[in-house]
Each structure stands twice: as C-alpha cells, then as structure tokens.
Design a protein that fits this description.
Strand order of the largest sheet: 2-3-4-5-6-7-8
CATH superfamily: Penicillin V Acylase, Chain A
Number of domains: 1
Structural class: alpha+beta
Radius of gyration: 17 Å
Strand content: 35-45%
CATH architecture: 4-Layer Sandwich
Distance between the termini: 22 Å
CATH class: Alpha Beta
Helix content: 10-25%
Number of helices: 4
Oligomer: single chain
Number of strands: 11
C-alpha cells in the first residue's frame, strides 16, 4: 500500500515540526507535528495503520470558531486507539470542524467524513487507486480536473512509490490548482509525506518543501502471533 499526501497551508502558518517516532504503551507512531495545535495530518503506526487528514467533508463550509479541539488532534486520538475504525464510530465530534480522514489498516481502506453534524463511513477496495482533494481548497470543477490527471497517471505506467511521489511533486504549470500550489492568496504546498506499507515495515518519507529538508524512517511492523 502506498499513501501520499501534500499539505497546503497559508504562509502565515508556522511550519510543522519534523516527523518523530513516538512510543506509546500499545504502539509506535510516526508523524510530523503541527506547530500551532500539536496535532498532525499524516500518521503511521507499527501495526500497519496509516491515517491522512483533509480539511472539510463533502463541500466547502463556513468556519465557525472557536472549535473544541483541532482536527489534527482527533487524527492522533484515532490512530492511537487499538481499533481505529471502532474508535471513530464512538468518539464525540461535537464542535469539531468538518474533515475527511483516509484510514488504511492491513488489507482494509476507509473514507471517514465528519460534516459538522454527522459521521460518514465508506469502505473502499484496498487494492484500488484513489485521489482526494480538500473541499475547502478546490471546487468541484478543479477536483474533477485533478481526478482526470490522476486517472491518466495511473494508466500511463507501472505504479511505484517514486512515481507517485513525483506525481504529487508536479503542478502541470498550474500554481493555483496543481499538486504543488503557490497561490497569490498565500496558500502554498508546505510538504509531501508518503508511507509505503510492506509486509514487515512502513517506509516513511517526509519532504519539507519550505526548508528543503527530507526525513526518512523505516518503522518495523509488530509481529502478531
């Protein structure tokens, strides 16, 4: 399984803390930390679970702060749970801003959304290829355009981790809606993060595009009886 994510933020937002390995009582987790709220948008654990957070659910919403907790902290609570999917089903999301989470656990893939009122859970084919775009940054037309580019990519060559990374690092000359953005509004792609889950390890790669620094870690998977 190859999971790759670009983080787009406003230049006024403080850059994230470099990824680090965190040892919990039940598992080890790697994630870059948001310097503002202490949460994360991408985390991988030594039980083979990977979570990616996108802002917004199905459509762009009007933010109504203050919210009870950062969505990035919700992501960490979910991946820290022994059963992340079950935890999502029971966790209270009252007064949490809408989000989408892509959840991979060995041989299973889920799309989890919170629209501000209701939770939505959708199981996907773990062998399939998918692309998501934040509903807060891209309208339906641009989302469809990015999906078309992705379809062209996955049918043009054999899928490799490097190939997917390079795809995420391209923008087709479009700094407003490409995969690496640098908008006049100050929105910019801060980083690219990738997790490759194999039978015995998670290969974790994080490229800080602002600081031009790269972080790589191999996290061995826990052996189950």
């Amino acid at each position: 399984m190859i999971i790759t994510s670009n983080r787009d933020e406003h230049l006024q937002r403080e850059n994230a803390v470099a990824p680090a390995l965190h040892t919990l009582p039940a598992k080890k987790i790697i994630f870059p930390k948001d310097a503002k709220a202490g949460g994360s948008w991408f985390a991988a654990a030594d039980d083979g679970v990977v979570l990616v957070l996108l802002n917004g659910a199905f459509k762009k919403h009007n933010p109504q702060p203050p919210y009870r907790k950062s969505r990035g902290l919700i992501l960490l609570e979910i991946i820290e749970a022994n059963e992340p999917l079950s935890f999502f089903k029971v966790i209270s999301l009252e007064n949490i801003e809408p989000f989408t989470i892509v959840l991979y656990q060995p041989d299973q893939l889920y799309e989890l959304r919170w629209d501000g009122k209701n939770k939505h859970e959708k199981q996907l084919d773990a062998a399939g290829s998918y692309i998501w775009s934040s509903a807060t940054l891209y309208n339906d037309e641009i989302i469809a355009y990015r999906e078309e580019l992705f379809e062209q990519f996955i049918h043009s060559a054999a899928i490799t981790a490097k190939g997917i990374y390079d795809f995420h690092a391209s923008n087709n000359g479009d700094t407003e809606n490409g995969f690496i953005i640098s908008r006049k509004t100050g929105m910019k792609t801060f980083s690219i993060t990738q997790a490759v889950v194999n039978d015995d390890a998670v290969n974790f790669l994080h490229s800080d595009l602002l600081q031009q620094q790269e972080y790589a870690e191999v996290l061995p998977l826990k052996q189950t009886a």
